């Protein structure tokens, strides 16, 4: 005697799987649907022997939803981790958060706009000096261009400089808003002291932020502007005169690697971006 086939899923379960299946990333949707369909079939056949409570159904629906949302969040994390878009969005979000805190401290937009007039003028005066000092004192390693054409290199540099400019402006704006938040409550009691402290805080925060912007720019892929992998040591420090040694950082998307020498020499004065030619590597 053959065993009867399991009964189809109830209408609620089918509708729930169709709705949450749209949340799951498309490459993982089939596997997710099969696994949860088997789980729901097991629950449906088991509850024919014992009555299923409303709490069990709610827990099952919650598990389906949390699993689908986790898969979607994980796909977004893998897609946007270390990208230039995530960096700019994070800085913009921090600026918005600090501005909301300033509004809460001031008690309204009209009061905040009045309190920001003086600090904003000092911000416009101090910013060029901060930028000049940062450029003059930053230890930058110029990266030699790869073997690609001039037109491609120009387009790449325009994209990189645009990203660096927007990132630096957001860093300066964030430093300004943080300095205002730190001295806004002090301004009502000691206005002169608050102005001096606000400028001091802004200069310190702006210098630290711009140095981070330089360091972050050097540690990104020259093509996709994604953060490079953790640096790995290459060579032996005791053989500086005999062979090259330093660190290498690889692009996670496979565009190339950044080779940074440990000591600048006459034959290796700067870091070098090495483009990965996959067709040539496959042929060899």
Task: Summarize the SSE layout with pairings.
Layout: H1 11-21, H2 29-46, H3 54-80, H4 84-106, H5 109-115, H6 117-137, H7 150-187, H8 191-218, E1 232-234, E2 246-250, E3 256-261, E4 272-275, H9 278-283
Antiparallel strand pairs: 1-2, 2-3, 3-4
Helix pairs in contact: 1-3, 4-7, 6-8, 7-8
Descriptors:
3 domains; 9 helices; 284 residues; 63% helix; disordered C terminus; alpha+beta; 4-stranded antiparallel β-sheet
What can you see in these coordinates?
The protein has three domains: 70 residues; 135 residues, no CATH class; 52 residues, no CATH class. It is 63% helix and 6% strand. The chain contains nine helices and four strands. A four-stranded antiparallel sheet has the order 1-2-3-4, with no helix packed on it. Strand 2 and strand 3 form a beta hairpin. The protein is flat and about 75 Å long. The termini are far apart. The N terminus and C terminus are likely disordered.
Short description:
It contains nine helices and four strands. It has 284 residues and is an alpha+beta fold. It folds into three domains: 11-80; 84-218, no CATH class; 232-283, no CATH class.
Main sheet record? 4 strands, antiparallel
Tell me the strand order in the biggest sheet. 1-2-3-4
Mean pLDDT: 78
List low-pLDDT spans: 1-5, 278-284
Q: So how many helices?
A: 9
Question: What is the general shape?
Answer: flat
Q: H/E order of the elements? A: HHHHHHHHEEEEH
Strand pairing plus helix content: what structural class? alpha+beta
Summarize the amount of helix as a percent range: 55-70%
* Whole-angstrom Rg: 28 Å
């Amino acid at each position: 005697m053959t065993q009867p086939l399991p009964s189809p899923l109830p209408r609620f379960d089918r509708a729930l799987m169709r709705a949450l299946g749209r949340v799951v990333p498309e490459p993982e949707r089939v596997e997710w649907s099969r696994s949860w369909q088997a789980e729901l079939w097991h629950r449906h056949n088991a509850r024919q022997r014992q009555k299923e409570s409303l709490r069990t159904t709610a827990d099952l629906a919650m598990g389906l939803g949390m699993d689908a949302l986790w898969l979607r969040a994980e796909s977004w994390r893998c897609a946007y981790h270390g990208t230039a878009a995530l960096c700019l969005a994070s800085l913009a979000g921090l600026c918005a958060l600090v501005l909301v805190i300033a509004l809460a401290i001031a008690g309204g937009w009209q009061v905040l706009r009045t309190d920001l007039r003086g600090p904003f003028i000092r911000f416009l005066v101090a910013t060029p000096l901060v930028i000049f000092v940062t450029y003059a004192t930053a230890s930058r390693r110029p990266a030699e261009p790869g073997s690609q054409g001039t037109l491609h290199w120009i387009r790449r540099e325009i994209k990189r400089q645009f990203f660096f400019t927007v990132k630096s402006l957001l860093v300066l704006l964030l430093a300004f808003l943080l300095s205002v938040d730190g001295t806004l409550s002090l301004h009502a009691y000691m206005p002169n002291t608050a102005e001096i402290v606000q400028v001091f805080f802004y200069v310190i925060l702006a210098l630290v932020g711009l140095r981070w912007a330089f360091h972050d720019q050097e540690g990104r892929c020259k093509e996709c502007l994604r953060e490079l992998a953790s640096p790995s040591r290459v060579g032996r420090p005791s053989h500086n005169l005999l062979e090259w040694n330093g660190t290498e950082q690889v692009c996670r998307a496979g565009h190339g690697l950044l080779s940074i020498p440990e000591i600048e020499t006459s034959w290796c004065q700067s870091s070098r971006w090495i483009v990965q030619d996959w067709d040539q590597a496959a042929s060899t």
